[in-house]
C-alpha cells in the first residue's frame, strides 16, 4: 500500500508561505533593550576624547587671569663695590647689603588686550569641547542605529533561514513522494547553506559594531551590547530657515568661529601697540658703615624698551595679525557654508527615508504579500512550481529588512541634523516608530 504525502506536503507548504512578520502592532521594547538616551548619557561621562577636551577648556579658563596680570617684580640682594681681591666693603662707594626691586609695566592697553585674547581663547576651547560632544553624539547615534539595522536584519535572516529549512523538508518530502524534483531539493540545500553563511557574516559585522561602540564608551571590546530599541522619531522637522537660525544661535562650531574672529581682531590691535615701549621702574636701597654709624642710600630708575628692529619684528607682527584675522573670517565663512549645505543634505535624506518608509509600509510589503498569496493559489492548482513560492516569500523578507534599514537611516539623519544645528529637534505629535 502506497501512502500519499500530498496532503502533508500541501499543509506544510501552506503553513510556510502564510507566515509573515506582522506590521500592524507597534513594537514594545524589551526591558533589557539598549536605548539611545542611555548610550548618549554614557558617552557624555565616559568618552576619553570628550573628557580630554573638557580638561583643555578648563585649563584655558585658568590662563585668562594670568594673561592680564602684571609680570612678577624682580627682587635682587647683593653687595656693591667691594674691593678686589680683598673683598672688603670699606670703600666710600661700597654698599653691603644692596637691595633692588624692579617692575616691568607694559604700555597702557597691552595687558587688557592680552586678557581679552585669553578670554576669547577660553571661549573657543569651550566651544571646541561642545562641538566635540555633538560630533561624538552623532557618531554614537550612527553606531546605535547601525546596530539596530543589523539586529533587525539578523532577525529577518533567521526567520528566512527557518522558512528555508521548512521548504527543504517539504521539497524532500515531495521528492520522496514522487511529486517533486531533485533540483528543488538541491536548490533548497544551497539556499539554506547560503543563508547560514550570510547570518554568520552579519553576526561578525555586528560584533565589530559593538566593539566600536564599546570603544566610544571606554569599555572593554567584549562588553555585551543589548539589541537597540528604536525610539520615536519626528515625522516633520522645522523649515530650513529656522534650522539655520538655530544653528547660528547654538552650533558650537559657529560660536567658536565668531570667537576666533574676535580674538584675531584683538590680536591685530595688540600688534599695533607692540611698537610702543614697555616701561621698567626700579628702586635700590643700600648701606655701608660710616664713622658715626651706618650710612643709608637709595636710588630710583626708569627704563623702557627700544624697538630698534621694528621692521622685522613689530611691523611684521602687524602683517601677520592682519593675515590671521582674514584667515579667521574665512574659516567662519567656511563653517557657515558647511552648515548650510549639511542642513540641506540632511533634510533631503530625511525626506527620502520617510517617503520610502511609507512606500514600503503601505505599498511594497503589502503588495509583496499579495504576491505570496497569489503564488500560493497558483501552486495549489499546479500553475507554478514551489520555488516560485519561495522566491515570493523571500522577497517579502528582503523588503522587511530594507524597511528596517530605512528606519535606521532616518534615525541617523535625525541625529546628524541635531548635530548640524547644535540642539535636539522638537518631537512632534506624529512620530516615525518601529512596527514589528
User: How many β strands by DSSP?
Assistant: 6
How is the biggest beta sheet arranged?
A: 4 strands, antiparallel
Spans of at least 5 consecutive residues with low confidence: 1-28
| Total domains | 1
Shape: elongated
Succession of helices and strands:
HHHEEHHEHHEEHHE
As a whole number of angstroms, the C-alpha radius of gyration is 38 Å
Quote the average pLDDT: 85
The CATH architecture can be given as: Up-down Bundle
- Reading side by side through the largest sheet, how are the strands ordered? 1-2-4-5
Structural class comes to alpha+beta
Portion in helices? 55-70%
CATH homologous superfamily name? Outer membrane efflux proteins (OEP)
CATH fold-type name: Outer membrane efflux proteins (OEP)
Number of contiguous helices:
9
The first-level CATH class name: Mainly Alpha
How far do the termini sit from each other? 47 Å
Percentage beta strand: 5-15%
Oligomer designation: single chain
Secondary structure layout:
Elements: H1 6-18, H2 36-46, H3 48-67, E1 74-80, E2 95-105, H4 110-177, H5 182-216, E3 233-234, H6 240-250, H7 252-273, E4 279-290, E5 293-304, H8 314-380, H9 386-421, E6 431-432
Antiparallel strand pairs: 1-2, 2-4, 3-6, 4-5
Q: Can you tell me about this structure?
A:
- With 436 residues, this protein is α+β, with helices and mostly antiparallel strands.
- The protein has a single domain (6-70, 106-275, 310-432), classed as Outer membrane efflux proteins (OEP) (Up-down Bundle), CATH 1.20.1600.
- It is built from nine helices and six strands; from the N terminus they run H-H-H-E-E-H-H-E-H-H-E-E-H-H-E.
- Strands 1-2-4-5 form a four-stranded antiparallel β-sheet, with no helix packed on it. The protein has a two-stranded antiparallel ribbon with strand order 3-6.
- Strand 4 (279-290) and strand 5 (293-304) form a beta hairpin.
- Helix 1 runs antiparallel to helix 8, helix 3 (48-67) runs antiparallel to helix 4 and helix 4 runs antiparallel to helix 5 (182-216).
- It is elongated and about 140 Å long.
- The protein starts with 5 loop residues before the first helix and ends with a strand.
Amino acid at each position: 500500500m502506497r501512502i500519499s504525502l500530498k496532503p502533508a506536503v500541501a499543509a506544510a507548504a501552506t503553513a510556510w508561505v502564510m507566515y509573515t512578520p506582522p506590521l500592524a502592532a507597534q513594537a514594545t521594547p524589551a526591558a533589557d533593550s539598549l536605548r539611545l538616551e542611555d548610550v548618549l548619557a554614557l558617552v557624555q561621562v565616559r568618552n576619553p576624547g570628550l573628557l580630554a577636551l573638557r580638561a583643555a577648556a578648563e585649563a584655558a579658563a585658568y590662563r585668562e587671569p594670568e594673561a592680564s596680570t602684571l609680570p612678577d617684580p624682580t627682587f635682587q640682594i647683593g653687595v656693591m663695590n667691594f674691593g678686589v681681591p680683598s673683598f672688603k666693603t670699606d670703600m666710600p662707594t661700597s654698599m653691603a647689603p644692596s637691595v633692588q626691586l624692579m617692575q616691568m609695566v607694559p604700555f597702557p592697553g597691552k595687558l587688557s588686550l592680552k586678557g581679552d585674547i585669553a578670554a576669547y581663547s577660553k571661549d573657543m576651547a569651550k566651544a571646541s569641547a561642545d562641538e566635540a560632544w555633538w560630533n561624538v553624539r552623532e557618531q554614537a547615534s550612527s553606531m546605535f542605529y547601525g546596530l539596530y539595522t543589523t539586529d533587525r536584519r539578523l532577525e529577518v535572516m533567521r526567520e528566512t533561514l527557518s522558512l528555508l529549512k521548512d521548504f527543504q523538508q517539504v521539497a524532500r518530502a515531495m521528492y520522496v513522494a514522487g511529486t517533486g524534483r531533485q533540483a528543488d531539493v538541491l536548490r533548497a540545500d544551497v539556499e539554506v547553506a547560503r543563508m547560514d553563511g550570510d547570518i554568520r557574516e552579519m553576526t561578525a559585522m555586528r560584533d565589530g559594531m559593538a566593539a566600536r561602540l564599546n570603544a566610544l564608551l571606554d569599555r572593554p571590546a567584549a562588553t555585551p551590547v543589548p539589541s537597540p530599541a528604536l525610539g520615536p522619531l519626528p515625522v516633520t522637522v522645522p523649515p530650513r530657515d529656522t534650522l539655520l537660525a538655530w544653528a547660528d544661535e547654538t552650533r558650537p562650531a559657529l560660536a567658536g568661529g565668531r570667537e576666533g574672529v574676535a580674538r584675531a581682531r584683538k590680536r591685530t590691535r595688540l600688534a599695533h601697540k607692540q611698537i610702543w615701549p614697555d616701561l621698567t621702574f626700579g628702586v635700590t636701597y643700600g648701606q655701608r658703615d660710616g664713622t658715626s654709624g651706618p650710612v643709608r642710600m637709595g636710588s630710583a630708575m626708569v627704563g623702557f624698551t627700544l624697538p630698534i628692529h621694528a621692521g622685522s619684528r613689530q611691523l611684521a607682527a602687524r602683517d601677520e595679525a592682519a593675515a590671521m584675522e582674514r584667515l579667521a573670517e574665512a574659516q567662519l565663512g567656511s563653517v557657515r557654508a558647511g552648515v548650510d549645505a549639511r542642513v540641506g543634505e540632511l533634510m533631503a535624506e530625511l525626506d527620502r527615508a520617510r517617503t520610502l518608509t511609507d512606500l514600503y509600509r503601505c505599498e511594497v510589503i503589502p503588495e509583496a504579500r499579495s504576491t505570496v498569496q497569489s503564488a500560493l493559489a497558483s501552486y495549489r492548482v499546479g500553475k507554478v512550481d514551489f520555488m516560485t513560492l519561495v522566491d515570493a516569500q523571500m522577497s517579502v523578507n528582503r523588503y522587511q529588512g530594507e524597511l528596517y534599514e530605512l528606519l535606521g537611516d532616518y534615525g541617523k539623519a535625525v541625529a546628524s541634523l541635531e548635530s548640524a544645528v547644535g540642539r535636539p529637534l522638537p518631537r512632534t505629535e506624529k512620530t516615525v516608530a518601529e512596527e514589528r
